Amino acid sequence: MKTKILLVTALLLLLLTTAVAAKPVITADHTYFDINSGHYVLNGNVRVETGNRIITAGKARVSMTSREVWGYDGITVTQDNIYFTGNSVYVQGSLRTARIDGSVNFSRAGLQITASQADYNWKTKRAIFRGNVRVTQNGNTWTADSVEYNIKTNTIL
């Protein structure tokens, strides 16, 4: 019986520790909670960090319940060696996706992609770039209407 209690206690502590670790760290110059929308409204030097994923923006709204982020005014999205910039971003944390709009720039060692829009999925590790896509890879440059890139395998599909 004592073993079962210890096991259940250990499992509960593990679950609680995992839940706390997954909670984002949010900072900004000015922050307030809009009770009508249920969103945190952030202005100036916005930083939303979840694990090794970091979003920065000039302005943002964050919903902790739906795990959504709307960032504006010059954004960056980074994770490990992945780096996106753009004018705005919409992140659906529960789906593990991000849509980056306006003057999108993606860079990684030996690769740079610019486009009007990019959709990135953290689960599949794929990014789809659309609109005025320009790819520079290992010194070669080419253009396309859209490009799909597998970040895990470092290949253009």
From TrEMBL:
Name of this protein: Lipopolysaccharide transport protein LptA
Native source species: Dendrosporobacter quercicolus
Keywords on record: Cell outer membrane, Membrane, Signal
Cross-referenced InterPro entries: LptD, OstA-like_N
Pfam families for the chain: LptD_N (PF03968)
A GO cellular component annotation in the UniProt record: cell outer membrane
Domain Organic solvent tolerance-like N-terminal: 26-154
Signal peptide positions (record): 1-21
Signal in keyword set: yes
PANTHER family according to UniProt: LPS-ASSEMBLY PROTEIN (PTHR30189), LPS-ASSEMBLY PROTEIN LPTD (PTHR30189:SF1)
